[in-house]
Amino acid sequence: MAENLSLKAFVVLMKSSKTIQERVKQDIQSYGMKTSEFAILETLFHKGRQTVRQISEAVLINTGSITYVIDKLETKGLLEREHCKEDRRVVYIQITNKGTELMQEIFPKHQQVIEDLFEGVSKEDMRVVIETLKKVGLKA
């Protein structure tokens, strides 16, 4: 039977994705957070004020679940809500000073964990992986 490279690539992608996700989850948990909490704070930290819908699209969490996580982060004083003056249905979420200080402390450590995962992989190989995964993602 001939080797099916598509199936092999799929299996390798899925296994490595699972392993990477577990390592990232472990890192985030070491800061006393859940992955969803970290993802929301990271989005606000890097992109600034966002609507709930924008955050939901950025972190790939549905808006129903995201409200619960936002409530928890707001209770901890890490983010705050601001109602849009022009459209009361729109609520902006922004990171607080406390949230910014936290992310300034932990994000560089988190980034280092990710960089360590790619240690030994050349920049050219990373570019190839990025372009290849984009192609597969667009095809799907």
From TrEMBL:
Per the record's keyword annotation, is DNA-binding included, yes or no? yes
Q: Which UniProt keywords apply?
A: DNA-binding, Transcription, Transcription regulation
Gene Ontology terms describing biological process: response to stress
What are the HTH marR-type domain coordinates in residue numbering? 6-138
InterPro entries to which the protein is assigned, alphabetical: ArsR-like_HTH, HTH_MarR-typ, MarR/SlyA-like, Tscrpt_reg_MarR-type_CS, WH-like_DNA-bd_sf, WH_DNA-bd_sf
Instruction: Enumerate the transmembrane spans.
Output: none
The keyword Transcription regulation appears for this protein: yes
- Which GO MF terms are attached to this record? DNA binding; DNA-binding transcription factor activity
Task: Write the protein's name.
Answer: HTH-type transcriptional regulator MhqR
